[in-house]
Design a protein that fits this description.
Beta Polymerase, domain 2, alpha/beta, NADH_UbQ_OxRdtase_30kDa_su, mitochondrion, NADH_quin_OxRdtase_su_C/D-like, 3 helices, 16% helix, two-stranded parallel ribbon, NADH dehydrogenase (ubiquinone) activity, NADH dehydrogenase subunit 9, single chain
Length: 184
Amino acid sequence: VILTCESIFRIIPIIRFELYNKESSFLVPTNLINEILRIFKHHFLYQFKVLTCISGVDYPENLYRFQVVYELLSLKYNSRLRFKVLVDELTPIETVENVFCASTWWEAEIWDMFGVFFSNQYNLTRLLTDYGFQGHPLRKDFPLTGFLEARFNFPKNRVAYENLELAQEYRVFEYLSPWENHTK
């Protein structure tokens, strides 16, 4: 085992350490994520050369609403690490594309889905939603139906957007089981 808590605690500032199913997870300061990832990529004892994923998590009840998770893999030592940073809705995170060039797509995806902004990221574009889309659909306060309905308008030969209105009559459901006797 190349990773010992003592060696890691000596080289990086850690806010919180979690160990779950033999997988280490570190909550680190947001402003130091570039330096921390660079250390673990290039240090000869660690060599986490592969960024396997960047994920976003939304906790709307927390002060720092979003958690951005970086998952690293060391092929040489067959080991994985997870680094987490906390961010609110307004504070940007520094991009890590200068450390891992593959992070560009994931950062754009997190911006598209959650609205977390990455500073110095040259390609923050909508990847999974339409260009005229308003909002960020993986936020927990995003309405389940969305705000607009997109449909193709044949006379105008283009996509038309209309405000979404879901009107439904009030219905009463009787949840009777066909396997039970419901006679009175």
